[in-house]
Design a protein that fits this description.
By secondary structure, the chain is mainly alpha-helical. It has 14 helices and 7 strands. It is elongated and about 80 Å long. Bound molecules: tryptophan.
């Protein structure tokens, strides 16, 4: 991106709802990309507490308590506050104002067509009682993304409809403004956009209780790996096994840097040359040693320190978001008082 002749680094922006600590699905999905992106991008990472309230209005205490947990997880996996602006959504009121302005550019039927929202409405059994804020959170997410002129949004594939909507809003505003005042975002998907749960369900998720948390103690990690779904048709280690849909292999593919050894294990597994117990022991050792340094960093982040990191990042985030808001207000003809 070039602003006034100065070459700046591309902007990346993403966030997480604070509804509990983060897990390996987040790590394989967007957390891993964020750690890499902070070297090449100007990166903003948001704790999306307002978005979390769209389906947790009855449980604000859970959201509040999870905010420092999520920040601690960020530091644990290697986000560095001096290189990534880590901030709190509700403390950037410019985002709410942008949302209010964007809401006029999106129809209700467009929101109801969003496949991720439809799926989430079904999962939560909202039926006809969908909170209006929930239906509209993709618009607020468009505000989050565009406020920071983000070109790159590192997310899992379930977030693609959100980025598509944000891009539509950008095109509408730029059209009205007669100038490219907003940047059109694109998703950056990791190689492992969706990690399965230990039970073989399509997605590791805290609410389904099938995820390994970044903060899980070694014995918890080992127990969860032992519970992992492998090949249900295989009775003995010498039977030929199936690799596809085998959760242990999905995790090895996501986290074992030794790709050749994993390929060799797959070959032996298919041929009946290695049992589930040995395979799971390798995965458990790998995960425990990968998580150990993260958990050590995580222990060093007190609640106060997490809130201080957010306060500092939020100051920086507000400065950027308020400049964007001024451009949008002007493009949409909002009156400015003297
Ligand atoms: N919807 C995202 C999630 O549930 C969180 C989020 C909020 C987000 N605002 C965002 C992601 C902006 C990317 C960009 O995980």
């Amino acid at each position: 991106m070039t602003v006034a002749g100065i070459i700046t680094r591309p902007r990346a922006m993403t966030g997480d709802r604070p509804t509990g600590p983060l897990h390996l699905g987040h790590l394989a999905g967007s957390l891993g990309s964020r750690v890499r992106l902070q070297d090449t991008c100007d990166q903003f990472v948001m704790v999306a507490d307002l978005q979390a309230l769209t389906d947790n209005a009855g449980n604000p205490a859970k959201v509040g308590a999870s905010i420092p947990e999520v920040v601690a997880d960020y530091i644990a996996v290697g986000l560095a506050p001096e290189r990534t602006t880590i901030f709190l959504q509700s403390s950037v009121p410019e985002l709410s104002e942008l949302t209010m302005l964007y809401l006029n550019l999106v129809t209700v039927s467009r929101l109801e067509r969003n496949p991720t929202i439809r799926n989430e409405i079904a999962l939560r059994n909202f039926e006809r009682s969908v909170p209006a804020g929930f239906l509209c959170y993709p618009v607020s997410q468009a505000a989050d993304i565009t406020a920071f002129d983000a070109e790159i949004v590192p997310v899992g594939d379930d977030q693609l409809p959100m980025i598509e909507l944000a891009a539509e809003i950008v095109r509408r505003i730029n059209h009205v403004a007669g100038d490219d005042i907003l940047v059109e975002p694109r998703a950056s998907l990791s190689n492992v956009p969706r990690l399965p749960g230990i039970d073989g369900k399509a997605k590791a998720s805290k609410s389904l209780g099938n995820a390994i948390m970044i903060n899980d103690e070694p014995d918890v990690v080992r127990r969860k790996v032992r519970m992992m779904y492998t090949d249900p048709n295989r009775l003995r280690a010498t039977d030929p096994g199936t690799v596809e849909g085998n959760v242990v292999f999905s995790y090895l593919d996501a986290f074992d840097p030794n790709v050749d050894e994993v390929e060799d294990l797959k070959r032996r597994y298919r041929a009946g040359g290695i049992g589930d117990t040995a395979l799971k022991a390798r995965l458990a050792d790998l995960l425990v040693s990968m998580l150990e340094p993260m958990q050590e960093r995580r222990r060093s982040v007190s609640r106060d320190m997490a809130l201080e990191i957010l306060a500092e990042g939020t100051r920086r985030a507000r400065a950027v978001a308020s400049a964007t808001l001024r451009r949008v207000r002007s493009a949409l003809g909002v009156v400015e008082l003297p």
